[in-house]
Specification:
This protein has ten helices and 20 strands. The protein is of the alpha+beta class. Strands 6-5-4-3-2-1-11-10-9-8-7 form an eleven-stranded antiparallel β-sheet. Helix 2 packs antiparallel against helix 3, helix 3 runs antiparallel to helix 4 and helix 7 packs across helix 9. The radius of gyration is 23 Å and the shape is globular.
Length: about 500
């Protein structure tokens, strides 16, 4: 999931909608059918969930959604009776105790303090503003924080406007090293969800004092199919002053959490200016192509597994540091232990465009982005961090590495050289393929990563990575090449790495 750039989006969508989002982008998650179906169930109006007919209708909705998911290649799984029961129980408890679900003001804004973690990257001491418009189905959060992963001394700016665009999640995201100088503007293939939607199914869990104010704690916990916990503290006058959400458990690829406190909350109508595009998104999106500096040969890497074909079109990759930028936090997960890593050499036009998000959609790899991003090789800084302007599109990104997108539309026909006015990449050749476990475990990459975190670029980890591909001899730090035969890759599964 553009997962790093969507950090706050993860924690703002409803629990089940996040599961559906994860399912659609990580197409090999075992419970894809369940995720899509659970989303349909809980996003419905469940006010009559205690009624047998209403429950039957929800069950039928589940079956329909699961079957549709199965047709897209998502495996069908058993009906989540515990999930249906949990929702029904909440409704019954509320009716028995004559309690209404907690509510918050329809429109409000306030100062923001936030901290969080996404897949091993921590953000600390974030300060900014939060805007919430329930009837308008939109919200905004902007803040400046520091991350511990690359350079703790470099502040990172984030501005996210999330809105319902024809039922989908529209995003207007700005990033920069302490300033607003890069934009991602996209409509994602997931339903829009109110960041407080889960509260309808929450339970009161005592009180506590925050900012000198007494507030009631509301909790929502879901252990299957993915561990998710949400908690909010609401004052007697219905003002939310704390929001805390975590997801994923041990061994989960997608795990993390966000913690918010809201100060000086003002309730009332919000001006349109509160949701106006950032400067970067208003006038700078999509980014203009980089200056043409001729043709360049790139060495880039991709983690993958058969039966996915060994191709580069509609795929995202990274240079050594670009791949390390997520491997050092995510590589220890069990899903990588059976994967392969291929070193590619490809010729590209240096007129780089804005990075496109390329992922598996259940049947094929597709790239998402403005039309201009699909007609060139995209480049961005590792995990959208670093000091380069415009999210590293036209920078060397020596500090955090570069990640690249290779849209199919920009690929050159055989024998045609890339050029500024023509096709953008071609002649892609796999140089060497190794087992990910050889690099990450046998050569000790993950242990070396621990020494480098917070001191980007990861010089020692880069040496381990490079030596694994330069030599085939384990005694020299090398990894033997993999023979890509059906026998050698039997049992492997596809896992799309979303960066």
């Amino acid at each position: 999931s553009q997962f790093f750039s969507l950090t706050n989006t993860f924690f703002s969508v409803s629990t089940v909608d996040f599961l559906a989002f994860s399912c659609r982008f990580a197409a090999t998650m075992v419970r894809c059918g369940l995720a899509a179906a659970a989303s349909a169930l809980l996003l419905a109006d469940l006010g009559g969930a205690s009624d047998i007919l209403a429950a039957a209708r929800m069950l039928e909705t589940f079956r329909t959604e699961a079957l549709q998911a199965a047709k897209l290649g998502f495996p069908f799984v058993s009906i989540p009776l515990e999930l249906l029961q949990m929702v029904a129980d909440t409704e019954v408890e509320n009716m028995a105790s004559h309690q209404s679900p907690p509510t918050i003001p329809k429109q409000w804004y306030g100062s923001l303090f936030c901290e969080g973690s996404i897949m091993g990257i921590d953000f600390k001491d974030g300060h900014g503003t939060w805007y919430y418009d329930g009837p308008g189905q939109r919200y905004r959060t902007n803040y400046t924080a520091r991350e511990n992963y690359f350079d703790p001394a470099l502040p990172q700016y984030r501005d996210m406007v999330i809105a319902n665009v024809s039922g989908s999640m529209g995003q207007n995201l700005s990033f920069g090293p302490g300033v607003d100088d890069g934009c991602v503007n996209a409509v994602m293939p997931m339903n829009y969800s109110d960041p407080f939607a889960w509260m309808k199914y929450s339970k009161a869990s005592g009180q506590k004092v925050i900012q000198g104010k007494t507030c009631t704690v509301y909790k929502f916990d879901l252990m299957k199919p993915m561990e998710v916990h949400a908690e909010a503290c609401v004052t007697d006058d219905k003002i939310p002053i704390e929001l805390n959400q975590t997801f994923g458990g041990p061994g989960s690829k997608f795990n993390g959490g966000n913690y918010y406190q809201f100060f000086d909350v003002v309730v009332g109508d919000l001006p349109e200016a509160a949701f106006a595009p950032s400067a970067a998104c208003d006038k700078g999106w999509p980014h203009q192509p980089c200056e043409d500096k001729g043709v360049q040969t790139l060495d880039t890497y991709r983690i993958w597994a058969p039966p996915e074909p060994q191709v580069l079109d509609n795929r995202d990759t990274g240079d050594v540091m670009g791949d390390l930028s997520f491997v050092c936090t995510q590589g220890s997960g069990p899903m990588y232990r059976t994967k392969l890593i291929t070193h590619w050499r490809v010729t590209v036009s240096t007129k780089f465009v804005q990075y496109a998000l390329c992922n598996f959609n259940g049947t094929d790899n597709v790239c998402i982005g403005a039309p201009s991003t699909l007609h060139g090789v995209g480049r961005r800084s590792g995990q959208l961090c670093g000091r380069g302007p415009a999210m590293g599109q036209c920078s060397s990104n020596d500090d955090v590495g570069s990640q690249f997108s290779f849209p199919r539309e920009a690929q050159c026909p055989a024998g045609v050289q890339p050029s500024a006015g023509g096709c953008a990449w071609g002649g892609a050749e796999p140089v060497k393929t190794i087992h990910a476990s050889c690099l990450m475990e046998d050569r000790g990459l993950l242990k070396t990563c621990l020494q480098d975190i917070g001191k980007a670029p990861f010089k020692e980890a880069m040496k381990v990575w490079e030596q694994a591909f330069q030599s085939d001899d384990p005694s020299q730090g090398g990894c033997p090449p993999v023979s890509l035969t059906p026998a050698a890759t039997a049992g492997a599964e596809i896992v799309e790495v979303i960066v």
